[in-house]
Amino acid sequence: MKEIEGGVTAAKGFQAAAAAAGIKYQGRTDMAMIYSQTPCVAAGTFTTNVVKAAPVKWDQEIVYHHPHAQAVVCNSGIANACTGEKGYGYCKETAQAVSQALGISEDSVLVASTGVIGMQIPIDRITAGVKALVPGLDGSIAAGTEAAKAIMTTDTVKKEVAVQVQIGGQTVTVGGMCKGSGMIHPNMCTMLSFITTDACISKEMLQKALSEDIKDTYNMVSVDGDTSTNDTVLLLANGQAGNPKITEEGEDFKAFCQALNYVNTTLAKKIAGDGEGATALFEVKIIGAESKQQAVTLAKSVITSSLTKAAIYGHDANWGRILCAMGYSGAQFDPEKVDLYFESSAGKLKIIENGVSTGYNEEEATKILSQSEVTAIADVKMGCASATAWGCDLTHEYVNINADYRS
């Protein structure tokens, strides 16, 4: 497996485009489209929030009850959440506009929105945006990059990645783009992720691969503890790589899952590192756990601790906050057996051993914690299971961004 340049247009047969529809933002693109030249099987995972945006409900219907999908259209600026039957009707009107412009079934059109909750989308601008997108559809890397930029809200950087892997003697490509910066919490986050692949794989195995993989990727990300109304991950496979069709578990399915995991892990970390107001990606690894669930529970508890996140922002090796967060997680462990390390590009330092400070050098610890990517590693010495979670530091700028978000 190797990483290659690009994102959603890296796989064979996929095109993308971006357009400025003036939905909320001025002077920048705010709509994106992904299109496959041939019908795809589609898989999806969606927010666990009881309050689900209209596009989530629309996409669940398409993914779960229709055999194929061929296009995705996304707007940024307005979330089309808490908008009732009218908002759902706008999803249908959007799909109809795409259907007419591309000559495909409206039941093969997926829609997505991100932005402010509670506002009705300006459907006239959306449908005009669709008409502007279609002529710009292109399979180039640049077109995929522009689409990744168009779905940004408070994101500060575009997020995309692509990899290639050999399956059945053929080169299979998996590429993706996502957005996400705030309202990010485990069990999906205010993130939209669109993944494309030219792998030939059944709809059932595609869904299995995605559903399993989000447990260790997007579901292990937290920025602020809020689970969004719009979280959506869509995975489209058009089969153009020509590999023997994957219909069951085996070496080919394993290879595909490894490529998918690379893409999802990379995108998840990009979301965490670009958390609203963040200055550092904060990674938490729990090792030596007696079970995967115990490790996941402990890692999530630390990554969501506001006090720990504030300490990371201050480059303060306040390890008591980490041990405290582990202690209230609900997972049972012996705090007097825990070893804790801080690690970054500046080095690795053992902070506590068997629950007690090692007498570490504070200046060295501060240097390690001053990097743009920081890892805390906690060994609970109970077994061989492990889990990794990603988040970011908590800064003054996070409050500023969210205090002024609607204005």
UniProtKB/TrEMBL annotation:
Similarity field: Belongs to the ArgJ family.
Its subcellular locations are: Cytoplasm
Q: What name is this protein filed under?
A: Arginine biosynthesis bifunctional protein ArgJ
Q: Write down the species.
A: Blautia ammoniilytica
Quaternary structure, from the entry: Heterotetramer of two alpha and two beta chains.
Name the Pfam families on file.
ArgJ
Q: Where is this site: Involved in the stabilization of negative charge on the oxyanion by the formation of the oxyanion hole?
A: T114, G115
InterPro entries documented for this protein? Arg_biosynth_ArgJ (IPR002813), ArgJ-like_dom_sf (IPR016117), ArgJ_beta_C (IPR042195)
The catalysed reaction is: N(2)-acetyl-L-ornithine + L-glutamate = N-acetyl-L-glutamate + L-ornithine; L-glutamate + acetyl-CoA = N-acetyl-L-glutamate + CoA + H(+)
